[in-house]
Design a protein that fits this description.
Blueprint lengths: L15 E14 L3 E8 L2 E8 L11 H14 L6 E10 L8 E12 L13 H6 L1 H4 L3 H23 L3 E2 L5 E2 L11 E4 L2 E5 L4 H9 L4 E9 L12 E10 L4 H31 L12 E3 H10 L13 H15 L3 E5 L22 E6 L2 E8 L4 H10 L8 H4 L9 E7 H8 L21
Parallel strand pairs: 3-5, 6-10, 12-13
Antiparallel strand pairs: 1-2, 1-4, 2-3, 4-5, 7-9, 8-9, 10-11, 11-16, 13-14, 14-15, 15-16
Helix pairs in contact: 4-6, 7-8
């Protein structure tokens, strides 16, 4: 079998024999010539075959009969069929698709597709999700996941260069990590287990274990019945935790440097493609990111004419959009850390200011008007942790396995969790994390 060449590598080859394989994107069956657009995982190329349909099948030579059979075979190709073609590569600047084409020598239909495709370019998002494996053939979707790969690789490289240790935490837990209301229960032999909302407790265990700095990119689960464009019941969480910090400022500094590394890698490798496919000139954010205390941010939003319609201390999605607009106008920046959150809005393990006991040393990171991450310095003093858990209505006995981490020595530490699909959605100006999630899971979707 001839060695298959990826479409992206054809332009660098000289004219001559070549084998390509992929799926049929279009067939233009003209009177004198046939064109097939073949697409593989790396791009698309034009295949060409001089049509021979005018030949009289009776009495033609063997070669002519084969040519006629080829013409009929190409005419019958269904969109989406996977084919393998061996032919002659030719460079021709008149060819609009990459300036190259392949004259078909032999064509093998590897698998034939049904002639009627279930989705089209104008299909609804839900319909496309029903047929996600077909939807993912689109070059735009392909690019999203190549960008994701580059982005994740750059994050890992930053962490490794800065002596972080990669960990893989369990997703089955004996008890709640944060909010029991958002937990999925699963049968576990004779008992009950819970799907992890985050690796939070296990990241902190690594600090007690003396790992110093850890990271994980892995699944997380939230039993949240939300149907918004930015929520999912299963998502990929980007997490990091580090020891020997002085405050949450150390976490924010690491967090912003990490994102700059990721954006730099994506722009360098995919910037031109992103501009062509998404119409976006991707910008690498400058350091440092702006930092605004939450109460100050709420006042800025109010001064812009929007009053957050809540009685508590939180900020709503429109408030996030408003503060992002202010930061863009004032600082020319797409990111902003909102810091110093009220204790009512934070879990029991966030450290509080000694001089402002109602405020936590924590932050949310807002990107283009949407929250993508929460980070904080953690409380590492066991007596304080127990009291803060009680204040939140939690039973310390149910948290014994977690509280034990702090009874045998643990350094000051902090970290963050960040949603991968949200970052990609905002980076590429998409309207839903369904677009930037390989297979989305939500309250009404468990298939495909």
């Amino acid at each position: 079998m001839s060695t298959r060449t990826l479409v992206k590598n054809l332009a660098a080859l000289p004219d001559g024999p070549v084998t390509v394989a992929g799926w049929v994107e279009t067939v233009r069956d003209q009177k004198k010539v046939q064109f097939v657009i073949l697409r593989d995982e790396s791009g698309a190329v034009q295949l060409v075959n001089p049509a021979t349909r005018d030949l009289d099948p009776e009495g033609v030579s063997v070669g002519a009969a084969e040519a006629l059979a080829m013409t009929e075979q190409i005419s019958a190709l269904a969109h989406g069929s996977f084919i393998r073609v061996t032919g002659e590569l030719k460079h021709d600047e008149r060819v609009k698709l990459g300036g190259i084409e392949v004259k078909i020598g032999t064509l093998e239909v590897v698998t034939e597709a049904n002639p009627e495709t279930p989705i089209a370019a104008d299909s609804s998002l839900d319909k496309r999700m029903d047929w996600r494996f077909l939807d993912l053939r689109h070059p735009k979707q392909n690019l999203i996941f190549r960008i994701q790969t580059t982005f994740e690789h750059a994050l890992r490289q930053y962490w490794i260069d800065n002596e972080f240790v990669e960990i893989h935490t369990p997703k089955l837990m004996a008890s709640a990590s944060e909010s029991r209301a958002e937990l999925f229960e699963v049968g576990y032999f004779e008992g009950t287990a819970y799907l992890a909302q985050s690796p939070q407790f296990f990241k902190q265990m690594a600090q007690s274990s003396g790992f110093g700095r850890v990271f994980e990119i892995g699944p997380a689960f939230r039993a949240d019945p939300s149907f918004t464009s930015r929520h999912a019941t299963e998502f990929t969480s980007i997490d990091a935790e580090m020891s020997w910090i002085d405050s949450h400022e150390d976490v924010m500094r690491m967090h912003e440097e990490l994102l700059v590394a990721g954006f730099t890698a994506v722009k360098q490798k995919h910037g031109a493609e992103i501009a062509e496919v998404f119409g976006i000139e991707l910008e690498v954010p400058s350091l440092p990111f702006p930092r605004i205390p939450l109460e100050e941010a709420k006042q800025i939003v109010a001064d812009r004419g929007y009053v957050i319609p809540r009685d508590d201390a939180d900020i709503d999605p429109e408030g996030e959009r408003q503060i992002s607009a202010y930061v863009r106008e004032t600082y020319g920046h797409d990111f902003v850390f909102l810091t110093d959150w009220d204790i009512s809005l934070r879990p029991f393990y966030h450290m509080r200011y000694a001089e402002h006991p109602n405020l936590t040393k924590s932050y949310d990171l807002i990107y283009n008007g949407v929250e993508i991450s929460t980070g904080a310095q953690r409380e590492h003093r066991i007596d304080v942790l127990v009291e803060q858990a009680k204040e939140k209505g939690l039973d310390p006995e149910e948290l014994e396995f977690y509280l034990d981490f702090f009874r045998y020595g643990v350094p000051p530490h902090g970290g963050f969790g960040m949603g991968l699909a949200r970052v990609l959605m905002l980076m590429l100006d998409e309207h839903s994390i369904r677009e930037t999630t390989y297979l989305f899971r939500g309250p009404t979707r468990l298939l495909p």
